[in-house]
Amino acid sequence: MSRANAALTPRARLRLAWLVVEQGWPVARAAERYDVSCGSSRSADRQAGSARRGQAAVGWQTQAVTVAEDSDRKALLRRGFALEYATLGWNVAGIVVLASAAVSAQSVALAGFGLDSLIEIGASTVVIWELSGTGPQRQRRGLRLIGYAFAVLAVYLLVQSTVVLAAGYHPRHSVLGIIWTSVTVAAMFALAAGKTRTGRALDNPMLTTEGRVTLVDGILAAAVLAGLVVNAALGWWQANPAAGYVLVFYAAWEVRQIFIGDH
Questions:
Q1: 127: buried, middle or exposed (CB in 10 Å: 19+, 13-18, 0-12)?
Q2: What's the whole-model pTM score?
């Protein structure tokens, strides 16, 4: 039998509210439990109601934040896919253009940069697999294949550039090669910046790392462009195989990063 004048301490009032909110006790039962009147328990019930509304507000806010975060992540993923597909398309076109320019000018630097574009297609494909949620085992296998391809590229360029220097072979000028590498420098720098920002926002180290690879690809394009321009303007044919050695250094660095570094 509850007493109408029974007083509740603040701690007991909170305990009563907890029984009503969390345990689902009826107000009358909670009043009997603490030997108070229904009026006192209703006061605690009002506190319980406020607690329920607070919990509902917090739950709604949490749900709203979760939905917003999911929406932002989906938008970032779409941007990541778009950047990788743009890189793929550019490198596919680059293989065709560079093959034509390399054959026409007999340029080892253009041939090596064309092979690098082929390898970059594989790197972008690996990132697309990773963004699609592909398992880490397939990702590691793809990275190893890319590492082997870079090793073959390094050996090819090292031998070919050395032979060209030893034989004193003079590659011809390549206007097509100069135009394509000029545009490639700007495109790769823009794509690299987008991948780095998106990878950091997604907390995706794979995309961020591939952004650095794309940045280095732009630097390589600048090195090949410099060799082509110096050869065309000053007749320094040695600049062409020298650009090939720059590609050798880059390919060796990639092999080290894939097999020994953070990959």
A1: buried
A2: 0.62
